[in-house]
């Protein structure tokens, strides 16, 4: 009996054996085409439009800020760092956002309306006012029938962490600015950017000035910058947390430095602390995160929220304005790092005890709400 050799498998490159036409050259990568089809080009377009409007708004606000000097100095009586702190605080309440107020502070500074220390204080005040937005969203959840403690806790933590870190950072930052320690660290490309943008935006500004008073350009710019931030929020990818991901997330949230970096990263991408902190409210109500785990997240978000303000300083071609924003970021980062490294457990316990006291009764909540509105008014009137 003879052994017959087993048949060889067909050669995939031989068209006669496989019955398929031979491939003569490279083929298109289907993965690349799939990736291109998945790109949300409408969101890319929104991002480009929002960036264009942001730069236009900065230029308009800079152009109109000088004409508002009598209003800021005489009507609102912004003549000291305390006045500037209260003014920025109330201004952020009014527009329900901190970034436009910070950009306004830089525009006033570039126009000579306020000095460097007052600019620093006004930007700090804008952060105080912006943190109220998270508390406002918590109120909305309470009105929809959610538990008051859960609904308000994230907003209260956002306010308290911001107040405690920024107040210390304000003292440190004023000292650094007065000493001139960081005056040497300034961008060298601001003039080039400004000259390029001048070619694009000067005709638009000239057209508006042909039928609008110069002071109104600041108001127009403020409205445009609010629209630009709204468009930017809409072009961000939609994120959802699935139940299967809760296990992985729950292991991460117990590490303070992980949450710190997560808050920094989310805010850097969204360029809005209001967006990155506001998502904590529904996550908390759904049980994905607990109050004690989000304090480092809030700290990280409060640092990278200045990315858009730093860009605005570069666009204004004002080295001193860039220094103000840089000192703000470094001061807040320094205070946050000290807390995380040396006494985070005590700080966390103190923050949670204050939150528990506030939500304990309607009277305590009313006292707190009265306080956060009365303080900026008092600062403005000093």
Task: Compute the number of helices.
Answer: 20
Structural class: mainly alpha
Number of strands: 0
Percent of residues in beta strands = under 5%
Low-confidence parts: 12-27, 239-247
Number of separate structural domains: 1
What is the terminal-to-terminal distance? 112 Å
Oligomer: single chain
Characterise this structure.
- By secondary structure, this protein is mainly α.
- It has 20 helices and no strands.
- α3 (41-65) packs antiparallel against α11, α7 packs antiparallel against α9 (148-179) and α9 (148-179) packs across α19 (344-359).
- The longest helix is centred in the middle third of the chain and has 32 residues, at 148-179.
Helix-strand layout with pairing:
Elements: H1 15-18, H2 30-38, H3 41-65, H4 69-75, H5 81-95, H6 99-110, H7 116-130, H8 132-143, H9 148-179, H10 190-209, H11 216-234, H12 246-252, H13 256-270, H14 273-278, H15 280-285, H16 295-304, H17 307-315, H18 319-342, H19 344-359, H20 362-381
How would you describe this structure in keywords?
globular, 382 residues, mainly alpha, 74% helix
